Amino acid sequence: MKKKLIIIILVVIALVTGCAKKIENKENESQANEILNNVNNTEVNKVLVVYFSKTGENYNVGNVEVGNTAMMASYIKEYLNADSFEIVPVNKYSDNYKESTEEAKKEQNENARPKIKNELTNLSSYDTIFIGYPIWWGDLPMIVYTFVEEYDLSNKTVIPFNTHEGSGNSGTYNTLKNKLSNSNVNTNGLALQGSVARTNEGKTKTINWLKELGY
């Protein structure tokens, strides 16, 4: 009788222990699912890097497959683990440097709005938009005007960056601030010479700038 009682007690202990473990596992599983759901319901990446950049012959760097501004954009994208959108013109600019400057000047004189080939469909997913471009004839490329006029950047933080060949940002950060009056435009942008943007020095300067911005 005593032996049977001991066996019964051991069986009961085993059952209780097993049930406790099952309950604990269910609780752990429930907690894990809750954490996973919170992650899935949170927009982890809210930063978008928008840029326009010219390939082909560029001043002082020769023929390139990746433009100077695109190099800067890649550093920002990599450091922030951000998404990116390249502004691609319907009518590609000439690979010849001189011809491309003439095309840009013609567009500027006509106050043109060149058409963009691709479309950004998920702009609402982002809170912060980095906008990058080369300085053309002391101003934004006209196709960048196309972008900021076609897309609603209201209530978003906009941070400009650019490449140049001696003109800095040429006042374009304030141009964007005035143009995007319903956006929070941070005029503490970064301007790099094209030849510098393609180097490790350019990458380091870009990352240091991002750190100064608090990223």
Labels describing this entry:
about 220 residues; alpha/beta; Rossmann fold; 2 domains; six-stranded parallel β-sheet; two-stranded antiparallel ribbon; about 45% helix; globular; disordered N terminus
The amount of beta strand, in percent, is 15-25%
* Whole-number total of structural domains: 2
- Biggest pleated sheet: 6 strands, parallel
User: What oligomeric arrangement do these chains adopt?
Assistant: single chain
Structural class: alpha/beta
- How many extended strands? 8
Rg from C-alpha positions? 27 Å
Task: Give unreliable regions as ranges.
Answer: 1-13, 35-43
CATH architecture of the largest domain: 3-Layer(aba) Sandwich
Number of helices: 7
- Classified in CATH, the superfamily of the largest domain is Flavodoxin domain
Account of the 3D structure:
The protein has seven helices and eight strands. The chain has 215 residues and is of the alpha/beta class. The chain folds into two domains: 1-42; 47-212, 3-Layer(aba) Sandwich (Rossmann fold). Strand 5, helix 4 (142-150) and strand 6 form a beta-alpha-beta unit. Helix 2 crosses helix 7 (200-212). The model is unreliable at 1-13 and 35-43 (pLDDT under 50).
Give a quick rundown of the structure:
With 215 residues, the chain is of the alpha/beta class.
